[in-house]
Amino acid sequence: MDARERIADPEELIRSAVEEKLAGVWTSAPGRVVSYDAAKQRVSVQLTVKGFVKQEDGTQKAVDIPVLQDVPVQFPSGGGQTMTFPVKPGDEVLMHFTSRSPASWQQSGGDQVPTDSRMNNLSNGFAVLGFKSDPKALANVSTSATEVRSDDGNTKISLSGAGGVGITTDKTVGISAANGVTMTGGAGDITFTGTLKVIGEIDLNGIHLSSHKHTGVQPGGGTSTGPTN
To answer: In DSSP terms, which residues pair with 47 in a beta bridge?
Structure first.
């Protein structure tokens, strides 16, 4: 029993009752991913803040909240484009709990009537990725560019008005295009460093390098000189 219930003060009794009711209302809370279903984009989440259960003597005991199941994951999306992430167990998330049941909307989309009366309930959760506790804060976050990056910073795409676009990685870069790749240096040059290996043909201003022949050459066993300007 709350000690305030022993006090003959109506205002204090009302305040105690309201606080007890609000203790069961959830708006948002941090958590961590326990498992991930990539096909459904759903996670199970363990909240990383504990709940409190009132004991018979009026004291409060901190307890783990049961693992939340089948929670939809939020990926940044709009206009038919979506940025996805390889969600892993242990990833930190922020859980949002809607003020009305989203079950019928989640199942069917569109405008729906809530299937039950639950409000700000632990069953009304959505998991938002990207929130990090201090021990997992990223190192060397750019203050001048937008980056899509690995947490270790070894692979990233950087975009800024001053620096343009940059791609950095300690791995490989692959490009696959069904209808061709177009590159232009504009007013500048395209500079390539390394060994260029081509499987196919090189067309240089209409000249096919694999079949191009020079005229005025005398047959013989000699070796030609190197390239000339």
So the answer is: 31
